[in-house]
Amino acid sequence: MMGTAKSIKEGAEAILNDPNSQLKDTLRAQVETEKQMANSRLDAIAQRIDLHRRVTDDRGMSQVHSVLMLNSHQHADDFRSVLQQASVCIKTLASIGRSAMSPVPSPSSSSTPQYPTPNESETTRMRTDAMTKLTGTLQRNLRVRYELDVAQVAQAVIPALSDRSSEFCRATAYRLIRHTLVDTESVKRLHEQPLDWYIVKSLTLDLKHTVEKEQVIKLIRAIVEIGSQRSDPHSGPCSGNVPLSDAVMRAFIAVAEQPEDPFKSICILTLAEILLIDIDLVSRTGGIRVLLHSLAEGPLELASLLTPVFLHIVDSPRTRGYLRPGTDLEMALSGVTDAYGKDPTHADRLKGICRLIGTMLRTWSGLMYFCMDDMQAIRALVDTLQIPSLDTREVVLDMFFDLLNIKTPEWYQTFINGRRLTMYHKARPGSGNEKTHQQELPQRSSEPLKLTDQYIGLLILVLCKAGLLDALTNMFQENPTGSNLSRKATLLMAEPIAHAPLRTSKLIPHVFDLALDYQKGEHRIIGTSALSSIDSFNRNRARLQPSPANSSRPRANSVEDAIRRGQRQVEQVKVRMGLQMDDRTFQAALLETQVMLTKDHNKWNFETLQDLIEGPLLNPKRMEEAIKVSRFIRRLMSFFHPFSHRFSDIERWNWQSNQRWVKMGCTLLSTLMASPDGQRFLGSEDDFLRQIVRSFAQLDPFNGTPESDPIFSKKRVSDTLTYGYLEMLGTLSKYKEGIELMEKFKVFTAFYHLSELRSREDLIKGIIENIDYSIDGHPRIVLSKALTSSYKHIRLYATNHLGIMIKNSTSANAWTLRLLITQLYDPAMDVCEMAARYLEEACESMDILRLVVAMQPTLDHLGEIGHGLLLKFMSTPMGFRYLYDAGYIDREMDLWFHERNIHYVVQIEVYLAKAFGSIPVEDEDDLLTFDGLVPQHFYGEIAKTELGYQVLREKGHFAEFVHFIRQHGLENEDTEVILKLKSILWTVGNIGSTTGGLRFLEEEEIIPVILEIAEQSLVLSVRGTCFFVLGLISSTPQGAEILDDYHWEATLSPLGLPTGLCIPVDIEKFVSIPPWEPASCIESDHRLIPPTSQAELEVLTAISNLSNTVIANTASRTLSKLKSKSEYKTVFSSPAVFFRALDLISSSHYRLPVRRYIFDLFDVDLEPDVVKQMAEYAKTFLVTSPKTSRPAHAPRAVSVFFAAPRQYGSESDEEEEIAVKNRPKIPTDAPVVSLRPKSMVVGFAEGGEK
Asked: Where on the tree of life does the source sit, at the highest rank (predicted)?
């Protein structure tokens, strides 16, 4: 490295000092730059050598300190050298730009020798090299970016953006500018530079210039990301500022709406980002129209990303005003409502559009927006079920299934096909499909409804109000004999009836009318067939739906209970008959098993052997005979001995047939434990336990030389029935005598040794899983040792097993809870989190909660992990007293009052957005951690006890909440206040969900205020919050009664208990939005002085007409004719006219090909001098006189000269054509911006003359 630097330095000095060298100015500057950089490298290398020498020679502490100081100086020198290199590159770029722009002097003007100016390619190459080097420096040294002056860099780079430079040079320039942006101040400095026209032209280029176009789009994205000023919380949403001019925005939008452009997608997404920051800029430049078009007709991938953007816009009245009600967002429905007559390839897109519509209807913004104008949009969607297209209707039906979260069972398709369901049977408890069934079908229990269920309940009522059930009934009438589509409609009708919070008679009156219509037999057939299908579906669902695993004891008169009683009776009879078996029959049965005749277990009669073990051998007399006389038990037990390699060598691959031998071994040990002779035989006469211990000893590294193929090797445990020995030992641990035998043979000692083996976690997990812990003693010590193992994965598995044991236990066991509480202090946070989760689930039982509170665990060290558990403690008087004395209540109340109320709202809204698909779910565990029920709230838990009620009253927080709601309940601008309002509403709702807390709401009379907010708030998400809050208040009988007085009906379970869902009697009053007038864009005062030349006027008029798609072709032909005429040559090469043309495309809507055509018309290159002239024109051509006032709602006139800037929403071809036909006459005192000396279209003869 040092040699290379010296060579560069010497070569540069030789070139510079050579008197005969004739260097060009630009080359001399480049050589000097290389020399300075070589000197910097040499200095840095010399400092490193000196530093290394000092460290090697001096070892003292003082020398170490000096070395550290030198090191810091070295870093400073490195930064200074890098900054110097960057400055040299900037100076080089500036000098190249000056030399390139300087005129070439004539040879006669000076006596000194003149050197030719470097050609364009050489200049471009030098610029590109310098900019690439500077960009690399900025990428490697981020600190240098903050030291550079962005304005100085831009001024040095601007010459590289000229038309004379190559495409790669311009792309490199944009890339360099992007890397100099670090903060908003740097973006402001860049905005002061004349870059707009360069960016506009680069965006207009065709597909041959993708490299340059890509870099300019990246620059725009960097400006948006770094330089945008986000909305102030007090100024409303989307009210920020994006530092992009209208000219750049319109050029960028033109790229976004061009179908074939490869950068269309990224431009659409960038526009969506800008819309969320500065909606006024996007609306003023016509970007909302482009985004709506992409939402309705663009790729589904883009539409799915734009959907949440527009839902956010609809939520607030300020941003909602930029949309036209009944027109704009309804464009998303056109893919479904206009599907009739489309080709079959439209089916896939139709499914994607239905998913988007489902996403919209699952949000408060989308639902209430589509409920405007008497639910016109939803009615149009429902009416698509009546169009004569089978494919379209089936897709729409599937959309309603998904929208209402209807999980179809496995026999769904059979029901649709009209076949009988006799082949399906209810899943047996414990079967593998039971869990699947429970997930497929919703369980009906007495617990409160989930938040998603409450929303879907409201959605069902809205759809029924919009005529969904009537549309389904009409589908029945199409085919009296029934079809797959009609049966699918029946299934869709049955689900809302089963889950809707209204009486069935209110939901399906038309179906009943058809069934009772005796005048027309066809109607009666249709009605009775539909009701019969609904009844059949409900009966089959009740028959095939499995009972919840955690349900209460089955009823005595249930079918399953009779089956269980019959099975128990059969088993008792078999045992009784076995015990009464005579000697001859018993001996014959022993011989029939073949155990006495052969050692090959495949020849044994397994059924007879199983009957013997479960029957006659339970008789102590028969057991004694089998042990002492016939030696039957000895032969049978020898089969299970590990070292006999009979049972232990059976392959595990055939699970069904070989698993029975493991069960037989467990049953045999249970039978031996049932008689004293069996216990004595197992303890003194048989080697089973002794060989088990020896097998475990083979794995002990302290027990001599390990065996090459031990019985409990990993391969044998995974591939053979060796694992069954762990189940057999677990069977022994169920009996007190079995535990004594295991203690006698030191089986537990072997367990303790195994627990120290890190490599055999499979055995440790098997022991933990199979051992029975119902009897106090060594088994519990084994579990305790596993819970405190030195290996984290063992502790996790043991904690999980302990949690499952507690969950499945029918009673509260103090020893299991004590062990689980001990795990809360584990050094690994994963173990603590798992223990806290299981303990929180267990504390759902009041008995367990009281027991845990009595143990008074300390949970402060857990932080957020133990938060839910502490909230459960607060719901009991003893737990509240314990936490209050510990100071937790006061500390946590202040924390919730100032911070956690806000976090609570964010948690719920994020969950609902993920559950309804509004935002993607990155990890499914996020949904599993939130079960859909309203999360615990500190204020809700504190109001459950009398002591908590008193503390809450003393603090006075509720009075402050009520005051805030009264003062800011109808706020619709300040986002910070709206978020706090939601948090306080949730707080009040959780307090009101308790009997004690409801007293606060009654005393303050806050319920009428919440109802007013729910019906009148202009922020739709606040209305949704009020809906859930009113559901919380209705979860108590007293709260439901209060809400009933205000015409909000609370739904009740069959037992008369509130379900937590409250529906307004007048549902339209709740879901409808008041109409609004679309916000009109403020006309800019930007006007130019009209040109004086008739030729310029004709050219500019034709260019203006290019924005009108009706007369654009005529204008294009006119421009071509004018361009071919010699007298117009000066017009198309005039920078002034070029500036006027660019000003037109910056204030009106022009498509990308038209913009490209306008740039190609002019023979004017974008050079720094031309851009400076255009900047002067922008000042001199600007009209400063006050604008003539116009009526606010004057009819829109389309001028064939200088068309006024297009307003949003008036750019369609039809509107333009009508406007041209009905164009009013312009008065003589019209403002100069109209530029209409006479009404004629250039290219047409006046008065019919030719």
From this structure: Eukaryota
